[in-house]
Amino acid sequence: MKTNHVLRACFIILFLVSISCSDDDQPAKPKPDGAKLQSLFIENRDQMKQQFTVDAEAGGSVTSEMGVIIDFPAGCFLSLDDDIVTGAVTIEFVEIFDRSTMLLSNMPTLGKTGDDKMAMLISGGEFFMNARQGETPLKPVKGFKIIAPVDNTGEADFDMGVFTGEEECEDDDCDVILSLIHI
After folding, report:
1. Per DSSP, what are the bridge partners of residue 127?
2. Does residue 38 or residue 123 have the better pLDDT?
3. Do 113 and 178 meet the contact criterion of CB atoms below 8 Å apart?
4. Which of 1, 36, 55, 106 lies 20 to 30 Å from 159, alpha-carbon distance?
5. pLDDT for the residue 10
6. Which of 99, 87, 78 is nearest to 144 (CA)?
7. Residue 63 belongs to domain spanning
8. What is d(CA 26, CA 82) in angstroms, rounded to the nearest whole number?
């Protein structure tokens, strides 16, 4: 009889415990937040920015953290009013060599080929360069040269062509159009 009371008490306790547990006690699952994700992308890109100073009249050469050399010829910057720039120019430079960094900074990993098909980028590096004098943006009047070490991406791929990317965007959905130039 005593055993029967113990069993009943155990069943009652088990029943009370089971009904007191509900899905409401579960922690809330995180909800996607596009604004936070975009903020993370911008923060990641900002952390990758390197700054250099170049004399606009004399030109110069700078070397990035990963060994990329950027050569600027003398007199290679114009103001937005098309005036030749003199004095110190601030160069902002971002270099990306791997797909994970491309993804974490919301940079393209796919591009459209000449026949309008999507393909994974085979990259020797992805670069962003901005020139300004004070807070005023500048534009290049002459080209500049970027030399990227092949060691940053593995080994030389002699079939890879140089490409220029043009973005075609519709509502934040961007494709990079690849124009292959074999050198």
Report:
1. 95
2. 38
3. yes
4. 106
5. 58
6. 78
7. 35-181
8. 62
d(Cα 7, Cα 13) in Å, to the nearest integer? 10
What DSSP string describes 47-78? HH-EEEEEETTTBEEEE-TTS-EEEE-TT-EE
User: Per-residue pLDDT tens for 97-107?
Assistant: 888 888 888 88
9 found inside a domain: no
Phi-psi bin for 106: left (phi > 0), alpha (psi -120 to 50), beta?
left
Check if the beta carbon of residue 125 is closer than 8 Å to that of residue 97. Answer: yes
Whether 47 maps to a domain, the answer reads yes
Q: pTM of the prediction?
A: 0.68
The helix, strand and coil proportions of the chain, stated in percent and rounded to the nearest 5, come to 25, 35, 40
What pLDDT shows up at residue 58?
95
Number of structural domains in the chain = 1
Cβ 136 vs Cβ 79: under 8 Å: yes
The pLDDT score that the predictor gives to residue 161 is: 63
